[in-house]
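dumping the sequnces here before i forget
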Amino acid sequence: MKTNDICEKTLADMEEGDKARIVKVGGVGAIKRRLLDMGIGRGEVLKVERYAPLKDPIQINIKGYSLALRVSEGRLIRVEEIS
Amino acid sequence: MYRIAVAGNPNSGKTSLFNNLTGEFQHVGNYPGVTVEFFEGFAYFRDLKFKLIDLPGTYSLTTYSQEEVVARDYIINEKPDAIINVIDAGNFERNLYFTIQLLELNLPVVIALNMTDIAEKKGSFINALRLSSILGVRVIPTVAKKGIGMEDLKEACFETIHKHIRPKPLSYPHELENALHKLESVVAVSSEFTGHYPPRWLALKLLEDDEHILKRLDDVESRNTVAGILHDVKKHILAHSGEDSQTAVVEARYGIASGIFRAVVKLKQISGKMFTDHIDAVVCSRYLGPLILLAIVYGLFAFVFKISDELKWIPLFNGDWVSPVGLFEHFFEYMGFLAKEHIGNKLLHSLISDAFIAGVGGVMCFVPLIFFMFLFIAVLEDTGYIARVAFILDRVMRVFGLQGKSILALIISGGLGGGGCAVPGIMAARTLREEKDRLVTMLVVPLMNCGAKFPVYAVLIAAFFSHSRGLMMFILWLLSWIFALVAGFTLRKWVIKGEQTPFVMELPIYHIPTLKGVLIHTWYRTWLYIKKAGTVILGVSVILWAMMYFPRIDSSNFETARSGALRELEQKLVNTKYTSLLPLTEKKLSEMQEEFSSFPAYLEYEKKISAVKIDEAREQLLNSFAGRLGSVFAPVSKLAGFDWRDNIALIGGFAAKEVVIGTLGTAYSLGSDDEGQRSLSARLAADKNWSPLRAFALMVFVMVYAPCFVAVLTIKRESGSWKWALFSTLYSTTAAFIIAVLIYQLGGLFF
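..and the predicted 3d for all of it:
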């Protein structure tokens, strides 16, 4: 049960300060390609820096730089939390 | 002369590097058919001349965004002699991903490893020589802002061109290589398909589902063979890696990038957070963030209008001080004075003063405003703050089909309720990279209460709502936002449809902008505006002027009336001390005005003459094309409470909204018996055909209807087509009419 939970988590479920490893990038077409181009790929580790004042978009740190993306896009990114 | 393209990620310091290499002498290249702009400039190395082309900054070379298409088409079709790829050393891995895509094209690339100073502060040290030997291209460490490495870079370009240096081929994971080999062999057979593309690159693009390349395939004879093999290899990749072929290609590139990263970068642990993290912790925080944003946006607004229009800080020859806008106004007033003095011909004088000077001059007076607005925005852009604005406000603006950065455009257009202008507002929409969001923003921005609408509100409020001025202004301000947001929502839902543009945006580290960089961009954008004023705007001014001026009426009746009044005066002067002045002429009288001023008969004469003049002007206006148009619309406009005079004013208001008041002033002073003594407000308040309701309907109509033609032309320029300019005019005028009719008719039930 617990392992299943972890697999189903997406970036949008992460909290400020959490670190996570990307399991799979979903979506299609332009959105998916854009995420991939920005370095969001399987196995990559990211850190949630903060949420915007209205809880959306999310600011993450990946590959040593800061990236903002919407919660709806965050839901396309399956992650597993790491401590 | 060699042509060298400068390519790289946004925020890689590409523009700084370009500015530093080329100096001040740049101009804008126009790529046929697209609105993406890029700069061109020249650099010199020994006795050689390089022509540099600054391509739009992109993260990739797909077909999903216009910028990427422009950059890649230029690189492939124009075949520059060399490409300088600017890499942000502090963001090495992701920048390398773009480099790999360039190298795949097997072109002469030189790498400028930029901002090495900041990267080293961050704790990452890159071995440039090692990088060079891995990739097979020259790598030059640079700090473009300080001009470090520029000579070496030019030399590397020269060497790359002369020694024919080409990158080493990159090797992908085994599975991908197999797929590429198979595709390459079928692709290479058909020369009509390969054209000037390398077959291996084509094979890669096929695996990436590249739209442009797939389309090319349609016209190729061997398309079925290629499609068959493509299908097979894609299936194989999916089975093997669990991902589609596009993802596999991207992952392979990032795999290469991280391999290189490990080979050439030495990381040192740096204690503590970076400067940028500290700022973001404050600037993007929950409560303080929005407050700081508000303060900066208000600051932008106040700064732009204060320094360009309110503060008088430029000395004149006569010892007066004026604002920059005032300086332009003075200049055009003086031109008007010259025209009056030296042009005898009535038609020519009216053309020069009413169309050329008033039209083009009116537009030129915006130049300081535009300049300072762009100056401020360029600074915000170059520091990296604009990206934070988008980050903070995206959630709110998205509800209305806009996005975070749209807020700037709305504020500049008058969103704070104290002046503003849609023209710089529309131009400010440039900070939005996403085509659809940009378009919606441009269409919505003219609904804000710009400075030109204020005189209209002021006059009507003074006439009908003098007891609740503040409240009325507040209502109008609120309405403008409601209309803009509803319009944004509606346009996005029904007109500019399509999936929401992904909002995946880099938050670059903060930089201190360079004066040179800021000035170059500010000046370029301002210059575009000036050029427009001198060409298209001049043309439209002349048309609008002609509509109000032609056809001329037969003025002989009025001539007779005038000379009759003159003869009458002469009769009365006989046997007074003025006898010696007889016979009188109008010219003589106007020269001796002061002396006559206390003479009762003269005062009576003046009264008559002004009545005749008013009658003539009224006849003339009513009879002009604009007047006829106003009368034609009268039966329809009656629904909103407007008569023919309002219609003329509104037609004139298309030139500039201030004109509405000017024209109403003319139309109402015409034919009244008070000799223009009373103000327009007083006159309207006394007119029994007017009511607060009609005034309110008119104010709302002025707020919403067609943007002034300068704004429309700006929309045309910025969107790249007349379609949107025309659409903007039509949708807003229709909406304005419907709203005004609703207000007038429904309001009529209650008041």
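Residues 174-250 of chain B form a domain with the Helix Hairpins fold (CATH 1.10.287).
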